[in-house]
Amino acid sequence: MHGKLIDVITGIPHLSQQADVYKNMYIPKHATLIANLGFMCRDPRIFDHPDSYQPERWLPEHNPNFASLPDVDSIIFGFGRRWVRLVFMLK
Question: Which residues contact 5 (CB under 8 A, 6 or more apart)?
């Protein structure tokens, strides 16, 4: 595959239950929110080569910056109020 990868991995759409402000951005009540999981796993502020296929970046023995990486379990297996329930079901 050549060219830039496109973020297609997204979370399940959620509906905001009330209006809110997050990092100076207004989110109206009943807005549809979709987490961009593809970007979360390839954030250029965290990864040196975010668009290259390097699964070893998540392994501490291959990545000296492993401690500063986001917790992959909290990205892939969910977050928010349903995260704890899901993770305990998987263990």
Answer: 38, 42, 51
Q: What is the pTM of this model?
A: 0.54
Query: What does the alpha-carbon distance between residue 18 and residue 48 come to, in Å, rounded to a whole number?
Result: 37
Contacts from 77-82 at CB under 8 Å and sequence distance 24+?
78/11, 79/35, 80/14
CA end-to-end span of the chain: 35
Cα–Cα distance, 74 to 15 (Å, whole number): 20
- Contact present, 79 and 35 (Cβ < 8 Å): yes
- Residues 50-63: tens digit of each pLDDT: 888 888 888 888 88
The burial class, CB within 10 Å (0-12 / 13-18 / 19+), for 54 is middle
